[in-house]
Amino acid sequence: MVALRGQRRTGVLSVDAEGTRTFIYLKEGVPVFAEEGTSGETLGRLLVRLKRITQEQYLTVLSKMTHALVFNEQLRFGETAVELGFMTEEQVNSALHNQVRWKVIRCFQRDEVAWSFGDNEAEVAEVGNFPMTLESLVFDAVLWLDSEHRNEAGLGGMLERFVYIPANERADVGRRLGLDPSVLPGLSALDGQRRAREIITLAGDIEWEAVLTTMAMLGMPVFLSEKPKDVAPVQAGPPPAPAPAAQLPRAVPLDRTRTSQVLRQLDSMVRSYQLTDGDLFKQPASPHEERLIAEHAFQRGRAHLAAGRDAQASRALRRAVQLAPANAEYAVLALWCDHKDRFSKDEDSATLLKREVVGAIRKDPNFAFGYYILGSLAFAAKDLPQAKRFFLKTISLDPAIVDATIRVRLIEARGSSDKR
């Protein structure tokens, strides 16, 4: 992508990794859109994870989208959420931008990647236009790596080098990395007087290790073997003015008129907007309805599982798998439901769970419940440090998985008890 940016190429970069194909659209070398050839995180799921809407609102939107098929109308999630008053158009537009970003970021998080590029201005002109800086995409991916992987990614070879960015370029570099404007003055530490090893220990709100790893990976010429000569000390001054907020262009304009009409028709039918258990097992009339019902069955199964209703959970989750057998997340949760009470005593169950979860996480590094299962496996094996790391990862992705927080507190309490 660095090379394509340097050549200002316009076309589609096809990235294959671990059974997933992602298409990244570049306009004059700048990534502007992305789509996954297999099912990735939906807009609705992303909005729940980012706490833009609640789980209940998510299910309400799904239900209305499903019922709208009665009128042969396929409503989009964003336009339905706006019409229901759950979000504004600007919030939906921002979420779409975020969704596109994560599709690119996931490419950087996967192993054994193969890619090809084809020049194609026509295809790029037909998709959404969400310009993104390569620096910010890599930085967001690096934030999820631990120190060991950051060193392997390039930082390890730069630790003894001095880091220098000219004073007049630091704010621009910070903005390209996607740093908050409030922390940009902190980049004055990159004055060439400190080695990378010293910088990563600095206090403050900047994730220094991730910043320097990103710079190393992208080959930015900031690492010097010696301190730069004739560099005047930089006087602290007022923070640079933030760049004006760019208007995010829409991938697809929202059709409020059509959506309002369909939702009014649904209201007039005086029917529940939540699907019943019977609805989950009806024969879908289209692939679109099949995907919606599968997601409903999955969410219903999660709710039953959290409430301890394992039989109902298994039934709903198996229905989700039946409708969407390629969805690794559905399959893993159904497997967990069937094995969660015996994996601590049955080595075969533990091995099976671990294999399937690792495969699912490779396809989607943001699969929160997958990390929860890995934490539970480590906890049962009495590997408490590893279990804690997995549970903390779970919490960072989905704080709603409350049991992960409970397990972390239990592990910390055990640690305190051992010290005494």
Write the layout of secondary structure elements.
Layout lengths: L1 H6 L3 E7 L2 E8 L2 E7 L6 H7 L5 H13 L9 H7 L5 H21 L4 E6 L1 H5 L8 H9 L4 H6 L9 E3 L5 H8 L13 E5 H4 L8 H10 L5 E2 L31 H13 L8 H4 L6 H20 L3 H14 L4 H12 L7 H17 L4 H13 L3 H14 L4 H18 L1
Antiparallel strand pairs: 1-2, 1-4, 2-3, 5-6, 5-7
Structural write-up:
The protein folds into 4 domains: 2-54 and 76-132, no CATH class; 136-224, no CATH class; 275-341; 342-420, Serine Threonine Protein Phosphatase 5, Tetratricopeptide repeat (Alpha Horseshoe), CATH 1.25.40. Helix content is 53%, strand content 9%. It contains 20 helices and 7 strands. It has helices spanning 2-7, 43-49, 55-67, 77-83, 89-109, 121-125, 134-142, 147-152, 170-177, 196-199, 208-217, 256-268, 277-280, 287-306, 310-323, 328-339, 347-363, 368-380, 384-397, 402-419, and strands at residues 11-17, 20-27, 30-36, 114-119, 162-164, 191-195, 223-224. The protein has a 4-stranded antiparallel beta sheet. It is globular and about 75 Å long.
